[in-house]
Amino acid sequence: MSEDIVVVFVTAPRGRGREIARRLLEERLAACVNIVPVESMYWWEGRIEEDKEDLLIIKTRAGVLDKLIERVKSIHPYQVPEVIALPIVKGLREYVDWVLREVRA
Predict the structure, then answer these.
(1) Is the pLDDT of residue 2 over 70?
(2) How many domains does the chain have?
C-alpha cells in the first residue's frame, strides 16, 4: 500500500522553494509539495552556518525518486542540496491512491 509512496524533504534558500516545487509538480515528479519557512543551522566547510530557508515536504512515488533527486540537483542553487526521502508506513488509502495517480512513473 503506502510502501509505493515516499515523503522527500528538500531545503532551499527562502523564496526559492516555490520555484522548485512548481517545476517538480509541472513535471509530474510530485503530487503535492508543502512549503514551510524554517531556520536552519548546519555545518558547512568547517563552520556553523545559519540560514532562513524553505522546507519542501514532497509527496511522490518511490519509483520516481531517482529522477526527482536528479531534477532537484539540476535546478537547486546549493552545491549540495538536502534531499532525503522517508518511507510512508501507512496512510489514508484514498490519499495514497491520489498520490499514485498524480505522479507519472
Answers:
(1) no
(2) 1
| 73: containing domain | 2-102
Q: pLDDT tens across 84-103, in order? A: 999 999 999 999 999 999 99
Q: What burial letters (b/e) apply to 62-87, b meaning 16+ CB within 10 Å?
A: bebbeebbebbeeebebeeebbeeee
Closest CA to 81 of 103, 47, 50, 56: 56
CATH of the domain at 41: 3.30.70.120
pLDDT at residue 1 in the model:
52
Asked whether the beta carbons of 14 and 37 are under 8 A apart, the reply is: yes
